[in-house]
Amino acid sequence: xxxxxxxxxxxxxxxxxxxxxxxxxxxxxxxxxxxxxxxxxxxxxxxxxxxxxxxxxxxxxxxxxxxxxxxxxxxxxxxxxxxxxxxxxxxxxxxxxxxxxxxxxxxxxxxxxxxxxxxxxxxxxxxxxxxxxxxxxxxxxxxxxxxxxxxxxxxxxxxxxxxxxxxxxxxxxxxxxxxxxxxxxxxxxxxxxxxxxxxxxxxxxxxxxxxxxxxxxxxxxxxxxxxxxxxxxxxxxxxxxxxxxxxxxxxxxxxxxxxxxxxxxxxxxxxxxxxxxxxxxxxxxxxxxxxxxxxxxxxxxxxxxxxxxxxxxxxxxxxxxxxxxxxxxxxxxxxxxxxxxxxxxxxxxxxxxxxxxxxxxxxxxxxxxxxxxxxxxxxxxxxxxxxxxxxxxxxxxxxxxxxxxxxx
Length: 408
Known about the structure:
Blueprint: H1 3-9, H2 11-23, H3 32-42, E1 47-51, E2 58-63, E3 76-82, H4 109-124, E4 133-139, H5 147-153, E5 166-173, E6 182-184, E7 187-190, E8 192-201, E9 205-206, H6 216-234, E10 241-250, E11 256-257, E12 260-269, H7 272-293, E13 296-305, E14 308-310, H8 312-326, E15 331-333, H9 344-348, E16 353-359, H10 385-401
Parallel strand pairs: 3-4, 3-5, 5-16, 6-15
Antiparallel strand pairs: 1-2, 2-4, 6-16, 7-14, 8-12, 8-13, 9-11, 10-12
Helix pairs in contact: 1-10, 2-4, 4-10, 6-7, 8-10
């Protein structure tokens, strides 16, 4: 049987695991039920398993048998899946919808986890072909908790005894592409993400006499629109940025001018140059507006995830593997990066690798209009699980064949 045939035999098992995870999503860095399900699903495989100290992560090392077995002598490749859900109230109406109030696997991490478990089974059955070791990275806390950074600090990249040669990850999408379509690109794949937190301090008063107060609301209103002008006038259109204000708060009643107003925004960039430009330009702009209105402002940037940058050679290798394993039409190069962000960027900052998108739009739905990831109605097609697992296994197998062993 071929690798794809074997992956097909795991379809039902992966689907059950994915749906079990979907019913009971967990959020953040502490995912005890998810961890235990992953450990149970890996049970019986010839893996060296460790769990995280600061999180409920799972790291599993599969030793190949082609080399002499000396720890650290064989090359190693890392495969990653994130495991956490989102604070979203599910509205899909699926029979396996979340049972946890206010939590949902709205970004497909349940599929990622099931695919990596499937890849572990496929690789374990092929240990005799592995010219090295495979590190399986089951990561909590991708959704804003920087779980990858925790795992990197705890040594996931060196778990086999030798720094991994390359790292690969998959991410499913509930729209944009039809089910089963893979996409990636060399260079920037996903944006850096930073937080912008702004508080304006004025002097409250009666809404009928604004001249006797110092109104922070009008200052904040001008700031929000001015940020959009800044992006179009100070940022290179070919090295873009996105600033979106997602929270704005002021006042208690319509006829009361408050003392303070505040807003929070997400800042997305694709290069260190533009990122640094905004770190300087945004406070300068907001402080100028505050001065013009006679109010005070505090501006705080909070660095989050860096740009997810795919290695050129590793991405070319991944693209070739996709087409040779699955067919010419199953892989395409993305024209532009996505403005979402990912803490897999922490891994790719340390080792070369590639992050690959996989369309999982529910069959029969239009990818152009289907609810996007993070929507309470995001619905992913389980049919992609075997192909995702097979690709992860094939990437690891082929990549290890290209790197020689060495003395420990």
